[in-house]
Amino acid sequence: MNPPGTETPAFYAGIDGGGSSTRVLIASEDGSVAGQGHAGPCNPNSVGIQAAAGAVAEAFAAAWNATGFSHTAGRSAHPGANRIAAAFFGIAGFTAFPHRAELQHQLGSLPWLAGARVEVDNDLRIAWAGALGGNPGVVVIAGTGSAAYGRTHDGRSDRCGGGGPLLDDGGSGAWLAAQALRAALRESDGRGPTTALTAAALSFFHAETVLEIAGRVASGAIDRAALARFAATVLNQAEAGDTEAQRIAQAGAEQLAELADAVRRKLLPEGPLAVSLTGGLSSVSSYTKRFQQAAGNRMPGAKFLPARYSPLAGAIALAAHLGGARHPRALIDAADRLAPLGTG
């Protein structure tokens, strides 16, 4: 970073609080000074309010220090106080969390945000803003969990999915992994066909039996985020030709397509629609192709677009809009430099 000058620029903050990790990006209005911070998972339904707020605070501190503005100016009670004009939080599971007001209060009370305009919403919205650049269309998130969000030219929006790992999240990383472990369990006790997923699971989780893995999942020793990391291995096995892995990959793609179509039917029953797949699994080209084929069968004429920016860049863009930034393009460019699509 270049050392700060004598002037005190306005800063904007974008927060991507996901089910596996938390990222905060703070940038000056002209984009010349920026910093990023990382911390652990932030879904309050999984980790609770205190851990979620703690992860954001840890990432915020790292991001602010990375800007180089670590000194206290004037009589500010905190180095960042009265310097951040606006902050936008995209928090996984926020819409379904029963104590949203309390979480929103804790996040808005972070010392860096004194005097700032603050908005907290689901991470679906920042994914949409990043993937489609704020343009109308539907974005499908395929990460630790899964969901879809859409917005029209006239500002109407709707969403689908995101109901959590026990009841929903079809096609997500955790879902793919769980389906693969079920297939491995069924093979191991004679109920299911032979599959390479069994050996892959034992190797990935450093276990001697599939029942050992099941026990660690049940006890929480293997949490949702760790489970989701196995998804890439499942998709690799599908590409290698394993029948069970292919069945699971196709079923997952169909569920993601169902999400996109449900939002499309609520927002735009007729006419062309832009659709983008984002999240960690969107980097697996074979899975993206399965999704596009399945979604195309449901939505003839849909225009599939690669994601333009990361959700973190989307959060910065929404913060810029919230705070009336004069140079939103510079902020988005700064976010794209520090947090390009596919990182996190």
Shape label? globular
CATH fold name of the largest domain, please? Nucleotidyltransferase, domain 5
Which CATH-level-2 architecture of the largest domain? 2-Layer Sandwich
SS summary, helix count: 12
- The share of residues in helices is 40-55%
Overview of this protein structure:
It is a single chain. By secondary structure, the protein is α/β, with parallel strands linked by helices. The chain folds into two domains: 11-128 and 309-338, 2-Layer Sandwich (Nucleotidyltransferase, domain 5); 134-307, ATPase, nucleotide binding domain (Nucleotidyltransferase, domain 5). Helix content is 44%, strand content 17%. The protein is built from twelve helices and ten strands. The protein has helices spanning 44-67, 100-108, 123-131, 173-188, 197-204, 210-219, 224-228, 231-239, 243-267, 285-298, 311-323, 328-338; strands at residues 11-17, 22-28, 34-39, 84-91, 117-122, 137-142, 146-151, 157-161, 274-278, 303-304. Strands 3-2-1-4-5 form a five-stranded mixed beta sheet, with helices on both faces. Strand 7 (146-151) and strand 8 form a beta hairpin. Helix 3 (123-131) packs across helix 11 and helix 4 (173-188) packs across helix 8 (231-239). The longest helix has 25 residues, at 243-267. The chain is globular. It starts with 10 loop residues before the first strand and ends in a 6-residue tail after the last helix. The model is unreliable at 1-6 and 71-77 (pLDDT under 50).
